[in-house]
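Researcher: I'm preparing a figure for a lab meeting and need a structural model of a single chain. I don't have an experimental structure, so a prediction will have to do for now. The sequence is pasted below. Please return the structure as C-alpha cells so I can convert it later.
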Amino acid sequence: MKIGNFDLEKDGTYIIAELSANHGGKIEIAKETIKCAKEIGANAIKLQTYTADTLTLDSDKEDFVIKGGTLWDDRKLYDLYQEAYLPWEWHEELFSYAREIGIDIFSSPFDKTAVDFLEQFNPSAYKIASFEITDYELIRYTASKRKPIIISTGIATIGEIQDAVDMCRSEGNDDIVLLKCTSAYPAPLEEANLKMIPNLAQTFNVVSGFSDHTLGSFAPIVAVSLGAKIIEKHFILDKSIGGADADFSMDKEEFSQMVKAIRDTEKLLGRVDYSMTENKRKSRQFSRSLYVAEDIKKGEVFSEKNVRSVRPGYGLHPKYLNDILGKVSMKSYKFGDRIEE
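Model: Understood. Here is the structure written out cell by cell.
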C-alpha cells in the first residue's frame, strides 16, 4: 500500500506531523511549520478541514459546553472550533507550498463539503478523526474517493471499527489504515494499550499504526517496535504560539528527536535474516573449533585429552568432535594446530 510515493511495506514508518490548531491564526506560521516538518524528517503534514459550523451548533446550552476533565473544560464547542480552525482559503497555498518543498500533505475532512473541497487538491490520502468514526456517511463518502483512508479508532467499539472497514470496502476502497488512538489530551500511558496495534492489523486485515496523544516519544518508539506503519503526532513550531493543542504537541526539538528515535528503532528491528553476512563471517573467528591440545604422533588415537573445542574458529566445526574421537591420526600434529578436514 502506498500513500503518495511512500510504500508502507518497503519504506519504513510513515511519520505524520499533525498541524491541527498549531498555526496561531497566521498562514506564515502554518507555512513555517510545514517547512520545519520537512527539515526534521516528517513524511507528511496533515491539516484539518472544518469550520465551527460544520462541526457543531452555536448554542449556549449545557450540552454544547465542554466538561469532563479536559484541557478545554467550560468552553463552548463552537468557540473552541472557531478559534482552532484553519481557514479554507489557506489550503491552496499550503498544498502548493508543501509540494514545492517535497513533503506530502493531506487533511482530515469533517463533513462531505470538506471532502468535496479537498478533492480539488488531489490529496494523497484522507484521515478520519477519532470522533468522526461514528459518522458513517462521512466515512462512506470519503472512501468513495478511492484514496487511502486512515481512520483513528480512539472512541470506537470493535463493532464500529468493523463497520468502518466494511463501508470502505463496500465502496471498492481496500487501502485502509487503522490507527490505535487514545482520545485523551494528553493521554495517560496506562491507557495507550499499544498491543492493539498488531491486533488491529490481524483482526481487520488492514495496515495499522498509531495516532499519539501521550507526552514524549516513548510511545511512538514502542508502537513502531510492535509493527506500526504510521505514526501521527501533533507538531508545533514553538509552544509559545499557544492554541488549543499546544500543551500536548511536540515542538521542533522534540519532534526531531522522535523522528531520529523511530529511524533508529527501524534499524534495530531490521528484518528476519538468517543469511551469513560479512560481519557474521568475521565474527566467527571468535567462535569455537577443533584444535590440537597436545602433540599427536601419526598413528596415535584422537582423545578428549589431545583434541579440544576451543576458540578461535578456524578449525573444524565442533559438531565433528565425536566423529574424530577414538580414530587413528593419519599424520602428526603439533600443539595448537588446527584439526581440518
